[in-house]
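Lab notebook, bench 4. Still working through the backlog of constructs that have no structural model yet. Next entry is a single chain of 360 residues. Request: give me the structure tokens for it.
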Amino acid sequence: MQPILEIKAFFFNAETDYLPYYKHFNIDLEKIDLAEELKAKDLLALIQKQNENFSYPEENLFFRINDLIVDGEQNMNEVIERLGTSLQIDPVNAYRSSNGLIIDDSDFMKSYELLAPFASDEDLEYYKTLYALHYASETENFDRTYIGDAILVLAHKLITAGSEEKEAILEAITYPYSSLLDSEYENNLFHAQDHTASIAELKMMVKAPKSDTPSLMDKLAARFAEKKDTLLKKEEKKDTVVTIEGKQIAYYAGAVTGKTAGMHEKIVQADAKMISFARTNKLSGLSLLEDNKELAHTKAATTLLDALDSGAQVLIVEEKEAYAMFKKHFSDIEKTIGRDIDLALISAEDFLVQTNTVTA
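Model written out:
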């Protein structure tokens, strides 16, 4: 039996609408006669058949389903298997929408202009293949002036290919707008691409001293590294005991994968209520503390508030470094976001010790 899709689709026409809005559609796949399996572009056509004002690009078709970017050829069976039958359709960048899923994508080539003097025709063609990656940049959700991950990936390609303009390339992607040092790499592609290492290498190139004398950035990084263990120990000593029994608890895994299901089971076993929230696996600014403290605090606040507003009273934090950052900068995080965050924090390690003690 084919599922019924519950679709929430984005509408906006810059010529007639003041604000975007959504319309709801039900699509019964059992009643759809398709010669081949349903693709993402077919889904859009079915929506448009029900409402002719629904618009999407005929070429270079990329859009978001439940905040993950897909292309028009994406098989919908795979989408449904992963995301379920309740789907939200948005443009790749809602702020740049001119008509539905059609956007003003001039920013994509504007970013390319930063490296155009150092690039060949082949490099331009490669950059064009990174169109979806550009709009999948998580950093853009926090700063709309961000130049995009795609141009950073191209910069890394040019440099590793032996470009003689290394310093000029690094300068081009570091100082204009929101750029390299504001990137904490993660993307929102349905089929994820991992460019973490490439962007980390670019940051190391920018921060590397040009002489035997350490740069200011090197000194700050070394100082932060020396303080990290001390910070963790201090936090362990002064933390108050967070009770978990009967509480509504969320689990923040961050970059750690493979532990969520087990932790959810532990929460239920601890006689607590499990709370899910959207940013469970998103990064929260840890790597940005030295380069852009305000952005780091904003990302951290967004994660903490997402858990709080989802109903959590306690947040279990998997990574020790993330937990230490939340604790150390908690008041600054609240000031940055302009809200009190009434959320107790406990490290995953302490939570497991507490649950094991209760079990014993």
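Notes after review: The chain has a mean pLDDT of 89. Residues 216-238 form the longest helix (23 residues). Flag for follow-up if needed.
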